[in-house]
């Protein structure tokens, strides 16, 4: 593409202009307006023929009235002493022959040579332009050289295939990103900040607990209060989005703080001591690998009182809690509460949400899991030796009638 151009002399149409260029050349110029641009004819004083105005008129007639017809005019039809330039209505220099004095927009000179593809005027032929910078001995970029080369049919096909692959890859990337963002928005837990807590309500991803061990009813320590905390975390682990357990806030959203729990710590009666105690309780319940991967403990201060935020991500396998007599129970979120599942419901839920699963975090082989069922005739117990595909098949094949 040729650069934009402007004339350094007065734009007076259809009359001879005398102009001396920056390099002291004396020109006779003639500007003729086309329907979509203009044409400039020029001849130096020393080359000017007799009856110059007539010769200008004769030459102009060969170019027609449009830029397209002017571009189609062969240079052989133009007197050898005449130079000319064709400029479109936007100021783009379409063609120049000779040394017409013009001002042009300097091109961007690249640092290194590169190739550029473009389609010819017929819309079908493809050309390649190799652009080389011109550099002086001091390393300054002065100009550029465009070397136009024909492109074979095979090269053109490869070029078109490359463009198609690039567009297809871009569309596929965009679709993948949109699907990924939609999935993350669906499964990502709600981001809870400290300032939002007073306005929150308990729900599928939010649970309030007044304390970890301090019993506000009896005004003393009660270790049984640890169990609802563990069950709430288990419910979030087994959910699709996870959730946040907020300790130090009552069910009515009253900010109670953690000071009573801090006072119950044996050694460090502060945030660090509380976090160590809470972390150990959750590690004992879910194993250290599960805790480290899916549970994060944070703190913040509201109205001068510290509260604890236990942020839980959804686990990748079903989580069971070991309760009395070695019974393993699965807890899930149901609205704003955490509920246990019976053995058949636990197997169905785990299969639906986790597919082919295994239990345990220490090794690939799972330990036997005791699942307790209740029937109208009494309490029955089923021991599933392995909770992979074989274990699932075994559990699924045990109907209520076979529980003897």
Structural description of this entry:
With 404 residues, this protein is α+β, with helices and mostly antiparallel strands. The protein has 3 domains: 1-106, no CATH class; 194-312, Methyltransferase, Cobalt-precorrin-4 Transmethylase, Domain 2, CATH 3.30.950; 341-402, no CATH class. Helix content is 27%, strand content 30%. The chain contains 9 helices and 21 strands. The strands form 7 sheets. Strands 2-3-4-5-6 form a 5-stranded antiparallel beta sheet. The protein has a 4-stranded mixed beta sheet with strand order 11-14-16-15. Helix 4 (226-237) packs across helix 6 and helix 6 crosses helix 7 (288-294). The longest helix has 35 residues, at 153-187. The protein starts with a strand and ends in a 7-residue tail after the last helix. The relative contact order is 0.07.
Number of domains: 3
Order of helices and strands: EEEEHHEEEEEEHEEEHEHHHEEEEEHEEH
The name of the CATH topology of the largest domain is: Methyltransferase, Cobalt-precorrin-4 Transmethylase, Domain 2
Give me the side-by-side strand order of the main sheet: 2-3-4-5-6
**Radius of gyration in whole Å, from Cα?**
42 Å
What fraction strand? 25-35%
Sheet with most strands:
5 strands, antiparallel
Number of strands: 21
Stretches where pLDDT is under 50 for at least 5 consecutive residues are 359-404
Number of helices: 9
Helical proportion, percent range: 25-40%
Assembly category: single chain
Level-1 CATH class name of the largest domain:
Alpha Beta
Mean pLDDT: 79
**What is the CATH architecture annotation of the largest domain?**
2-Layer Sandwich
Distance between the termini: 88 Å
Kindly name the structural category.
Answer: alpha+beta
């Amino acid at each position: 593409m040729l650069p934009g151009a402007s004339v350094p002399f007065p734009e007076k149409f259809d009359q001879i202009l005398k102009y001396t260029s920056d390099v002291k050349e004396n020109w006779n110029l003639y500007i003729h307006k086309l329907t979509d641009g203009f044409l400039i004819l020029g001849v130096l004083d020393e080359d000017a023929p007799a009856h110059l105005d007539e010769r200008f008129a004769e030459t102009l007639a060969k170019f027609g009235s449009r830029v397209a017809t002017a571009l189609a005019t062969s240079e052989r039809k133009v007197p050898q002493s005449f130079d000319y330039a064709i400029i479109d209505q936007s100021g783009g220099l379409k063609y120049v022959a000779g040394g017409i004095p013009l001002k042009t927009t300097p091109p961007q000179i690249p640092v290194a040579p590169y190739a550029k593809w473009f389609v010819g005027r017929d819309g079908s032929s493809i050309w390649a332009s190799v652009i080389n910078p011109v550099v002086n001995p001091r390393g300054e970029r002065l100009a550029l050289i465009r070397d136009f080369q024909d492109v074979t049919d095979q090269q053109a096909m490869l070029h078109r295939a490359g463009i198609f692959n690039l567009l297809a890859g871009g569309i596929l990337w965009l679709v993948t990103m949109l699907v990924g963002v939609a999935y993350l928005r669906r499964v990502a837990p709600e981001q809870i900040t400290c300032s939002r807590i007073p306005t929150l309500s308990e729900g599928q991803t939010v649970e309030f607990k007044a304390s970890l061990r301090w019993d506000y009813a009896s005004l003393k320590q009660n270790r049984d209060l640890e169990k609802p905390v563990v069950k709430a975390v288990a419910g979030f682990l087994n959910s699709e989005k996870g959730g946040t357990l907020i300790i130090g806030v009552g069910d009515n959203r009253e900010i109670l703080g953690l000071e009573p729990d801090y006072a119950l710590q044996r050694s460090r009666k502060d945030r660090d001591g509380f976090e160590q105690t809470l972390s150990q309780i959750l590690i004992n319940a879910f194993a250290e690998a599960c805790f480290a991967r899916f549970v994060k403990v944070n703190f913040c201060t509201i109205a001068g009182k510290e509260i604890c935020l236990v942020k839980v991500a959804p686990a990748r396998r079903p989580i069971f809690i070991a309760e009395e007599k070695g019974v393993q129970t699965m807890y899930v979120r149901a609205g704003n509460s955490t509920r246990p599942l019976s053995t058949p419901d636990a197997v169905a839920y785990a299969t639906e949400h986790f597919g082919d699963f295994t239990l345990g975090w220490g090794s690939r082989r799972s330990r036997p899991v005791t699942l307790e069922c209740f029937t109208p005739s009494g309490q029955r117990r089923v021991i599933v030796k392995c909770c992979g595909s074989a274990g699932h098949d075994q559990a699924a094949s045990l109907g209520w009638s076979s529980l003897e």
